[in-house]
Amino acid sequence: xxxxxxxxxxxxxxxxxxxxxxxxxxxxxxxxxxxxxxxxxxxxxxxxxxxxxxxxxxxxxxxxxxxxxxxxxxxxxxxxxxxxxxxxxxxxxxxxxxxxxxxxxxxxxxxxxxxxxxxxxxxxxxxxxxxxxxxxxxxxxxxxxxxxxxxxxxxxxxxxxxxxxxxxxxxxxxxxxxxxxxxxxxxxxxxxxxxxxxxxxxxxxxxxxxxxxxxxxxxxxxxxxxxxxxxxxxxxxxxxxxxxxxxxxxxxxxxxxxxxxxxxxxxxxxxxxxxxxxxxxxxxxxxxxxxxxxxxxxxxxxxxxxxxxxxxxxxxxxxxxxxxxxxxxxxxxxxxxxxxxxxxxxxxxxxxxxxxxxxxxxxxxxxxxxxxxxxxxxxxxxxxxxxxxxxxxxxxxxxxxxx
Length: 403
Description:
By secondary structure, the chain is mainly beta. Helix content is 13%, strand content 43%. The chain contains 5 helices and 19 strands. The protein has helices at 2-18, 112-126, 215-220, 381-384, 392-402, and strands at 19-29, 40-43, 49-51, 57-63, 68-72, 79-82, 90-95, 104-105, 131-143, 146-161, 167-180, 230-238, 244-252, 261-268, 273-281, 292-294, 297-313, 316-332, 336-352. It starts with a helix and ends with a helix. 30% of the residues are buried.
């Protein structure tokens, strides 16, 4: 008991010394009064920041020695806040739509798919691959239409280049928690398998690697065969600083009888690097979903969603946020005949590119998901750390699991 108390005291002391206040609130579109999700809240002159959730809500513990905080979102005029004028009360922050940010079709003689290939290649080269990412990670698991698990934690990813586009990662899980249904009978079984034991589709060891790899873009849109399944439209617009950004819209051809992705990829045309990726399975093409046979089992993807964003902080091009949703049907003999969905969020709260040492394997987290780590925390990190708050809907789901 004394050791636990000492750990908590040390954690609280460090937290107090490193932070000078709380900036929290909801970011709202001034014109429509609708929330602005996934906005960036950045402490200027640092690499520290957070992201607003899908309800536009954020909570940022202000680092020491910070004078100014900036809130920005693509298509809106950014706002800067003097730290001395910020109080800890919950605030409504209104952003004005950037009136000069209207999109215009951009005409070019170069195929848009070739432009996309060049942007992806340059983005890979621009990202420093020998880094430490301080992150907040969370994940929900849903089995046969019932949420069954939740886990989140503060994780440091130490990344090093391996070969070509491959990376090695060493994880330090600083704190974590995990909830799951205690009674497996609460999950509907459509086969003989006990799905309550299934953790996740995602390998947490590789959760941050996706920032540095664009395999899903290359396989779906730059593959010689599959690129013919899509139309590509290039548009441009200017931000409030009259800096041009360009957007590639990926539009599945209606005559293609396959389940295809749709969405957009926003990039900086000067540096030719990705700023934001927003892709999902096309609703119109979901009618073409087919079950695939692979040796001993069958599967079908009913939904795929990928959102991935990057930002410039003090001249550094760094990962910011990654969201992945996979909704899969799996049939494995008589053991499994079920629909499973995993949703993960990874928020980069700080970035270091001057790593002097990497933790050894004995110190590192070895599991492929957070669930085996269970309830392993010294303080209520979900309330006292820089994370992306749960949305109202996510809070309701978590309370159900907690109960």
